[in-house]
């Protein structure tokens, strides 16, 4: 079903709250410079756990960003989402009066991997410590995967189509694709992305069962995908929200089209079946290229999933080769997430934010802590590489078996 | 703690249970205004009812959590406390 003039979905705003920067400028500077911020976990109640290293956000002050009545009824993952949504809307030049003038034209979609674990733990401790009468009613909504979408919508008065995607790490890309579809169907603006907060005691214990998790306690050695020293991944908190807008709407408002979401596809190959993920990821890449009308040779950079598990890394390198052909060994590949860890569903959204910024700055950021590559990939290491980036491919896989690929094209604004 | 819930106590509970800051004298002056105009939603009011039940060790009337205004709420919960005393 292709209309003669399809409404293209543009990125017009970026909001990032990440371990290496709690605003988009700080995030880009640290990402471009390859500053690794992985560190020992210092959250209360976490120090004794065998998971020692993560990407923790240390300079985010919730009361400075969010009104108290929203803070008390939400988990940390929703605090990040509300703050990132504010940054993205502000970046897109959409103030409260703009969205109030057409509230049904602005929707929200987020992805979430685990919901509000810290809030949930507190209330469950009340339940077992004092009794059911001591569990607060906001527990009913705060833990929930859809909490961030709902709270962003309520707090900003956004009444357009809303949704949540719970499809594993790759859900971050699926949420952006969902937003692009909503735009193509007629909604002018979607606030879309993902944030996670997996670094509280209960949430961390839940992760200990993942065999892919790195338990190495030296921060600069804990997450080194595509090397012979690959020993798993480390988790991160935070994420990004984007403003995804109809290209025509952006033109009318006179704001730059920074990139377009040109193609997406998703597949499923089963939990921890990394060898099989080769075929699933390759198929997702082909699907995304097909939807974007993009030849493999047009891809100027690949943002890798980079799980850091040898079998999974091999499957990803082979999937890139399968789907891109000889171009797969020549195209620059990067994994800036080795600086901050994997923020589950938010990890690929941070990569999409980075891809847009890379297009605008003509710089591919490096893959910190990764040096000797044992796969046939041109991985960008040590320092950022100058390159004209017109088209970017972002890859994501989830521990539970989801695979997704997203193709972004540079907008008119990025052509300078 | 008295055997009557005052606007001061209600203001304190609104802050504690729902993060809504309102001065007691404003709550008194606007006691017929809807809770929503203070920024308190239905889950917030439910949390206040739960907190009161825990504090006073007695169930509140089922309609308390459906009260529209501070005046209506205080009348309901105070009559329950009085009856329980």
TrEMBL record, chain A:
Q: Which UniProt keywords apply?
A: Acyltransferase, Transferase
Q: Does the keyword Acyltransferase apply?
A: yes
Q: Which InterPro entries match?
A: Beta-ketoacyl_synthase, Ketoacyl_synth_C, Ketoacyl_synth_N, PKS_Beta-ketoAc_synthase_dom, Thiolase-like
Q: Which PROSITE patterns match?
A: KS3_2
Superkingdom field: Bacteria
Q: Does the keyword Transferase apply?
A: yes
The biological process GO terms on file are: fatty acid biosynthetic process
- SUPFAM superfamilies xrefs: Thiolase-like
Drop me one GO molecular function for this one: 3-oxoacyl-[acyl-carrier-protein] synthase activity
Q: List each copy of the Ketosynthase family 3 (KS3) domain by range.
A: 6-410
Family membership noted in the UniProt record: Belongs to the thiolase-like superfamily. Beta-ketoacyl-ACP synthases family.
Q: List the protein's name.
A: Polyketide beta-ketoacyl synthase
What is the organism field in this record? Streptomyces pseudovenezuelae
Automatic annotation (TrEMBL), chain B:
InterPro entries, per database record? ACP-like_sf, PP-bd_ACP, Ppantetheine_attach_site
Which intervals hold domain Carrier?
4-85
Q: Which UniProt keywords apply?
A: Phosphopantetheine, Phosphoprotein
The entry's protein name is Curamycin polyketide synthase
Organism expressing this protein natively: Streptomyces pseudovenezuelae
Taxonomic lineage of this organism?
Bacteria, Bacillati, Actinomycetota, Actinomycetes, Kitasatosporales
């Amino acid at each position: 079903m292709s209309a003669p003039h399809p409404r293209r979905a543009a990125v017009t705003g970026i909001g990032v709250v990440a371990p290496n920067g709690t605003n988009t400028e700080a995030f880009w500077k640290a990402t471009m410079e390859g500053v690794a911020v992985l560190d020992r976990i210092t959250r209360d109640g976490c120090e004794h756990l065998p998971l020692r290293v993560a990407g923790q956000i240390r300079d985010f002050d919730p009361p400075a960003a969010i009104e108290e009545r929203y803070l008390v009824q939400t988990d940390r993952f929703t605090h990040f989402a509300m703050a990132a949504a504010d940054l993205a809307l502000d970046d897109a030049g959409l103030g409260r009066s703009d969205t109030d003038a057409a509230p049904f034209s602005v929707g929200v979609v987020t992805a979430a991997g685990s919901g509000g674990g810290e809030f949930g733990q507190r209330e469950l401790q009340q339940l077992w410590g004092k009794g059911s009468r001591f569990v607060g009613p906001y527990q009913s909504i705060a833990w929930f995967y859809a909490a961030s979408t709902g709270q962003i919508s309520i707090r900003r008065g956004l009444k357009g189509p809303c949704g949540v995607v719970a499809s594993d790490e790759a859900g971050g890309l699926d949420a952006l694709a969902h937003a692009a579809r909503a735009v193509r169907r007629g909604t002018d603006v979607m606030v879309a992305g993902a944030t996670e907060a997996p670094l509280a005691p209960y949430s961390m214990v839940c992760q200990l069962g993942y065999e892919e998790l790195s338990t190495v306690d030296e921060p600069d050695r804990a997450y080194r995908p595509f090397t012979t020293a690959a020993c798993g991944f480390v988790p991160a908190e935070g994420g990004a929200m984007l403003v995804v807008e109809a290209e025509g709407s952006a033109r009318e408002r006179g704001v730059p089209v920074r990139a377009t979401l040109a193609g997406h596809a998703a597949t499923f190959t089963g939990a921890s079946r990394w060898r099989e993920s080769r075929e699933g990821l390759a198929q997702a890449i082909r699907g995304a290229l097909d939807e974007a009308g993009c030849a493999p040779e047009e891809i100027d950079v690949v943002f890798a999933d980079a799980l850091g598990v040898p079998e999974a890394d091999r499957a990803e390198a082979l999937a890139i080769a399968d789907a891109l052909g000889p171009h797969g060994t020549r195209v620059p590949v990067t994994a800036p997430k080795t600086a901050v860890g994997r923020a589950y569903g938010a990890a690929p959204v941070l990569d999409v934010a980075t891809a847009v910024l890379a297009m605008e700055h003509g710089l591919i950021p490096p893959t910190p802590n990764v040096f000797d590559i044992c796969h046939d990939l041109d991985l960008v290491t040590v320092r950022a590489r100058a390159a004209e980036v017109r088209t970017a491919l972002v890859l994501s896989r989830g521990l539970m078996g989801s695979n997704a690929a997203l193709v972004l094209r540079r907008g008119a604004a990025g052509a300078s | 703690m008295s055997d009557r819930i005052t606007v001061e106590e209600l203001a304190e509970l609104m802050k504690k249970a729902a993060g809504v800051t309102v001065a007691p004298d404003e709550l008194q002056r606007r006691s017929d205004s809807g809770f929503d105009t203070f920024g308190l939603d239905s889950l917030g009011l439910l949390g206040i009812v739960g907190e009161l039940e825990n504090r006073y060790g007695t169930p509140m009337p089922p309609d308390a959590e459906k009260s529209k205004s501070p005046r209506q709420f205080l009348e309901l919960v105070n009559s329950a406390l009085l009856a329980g005393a």
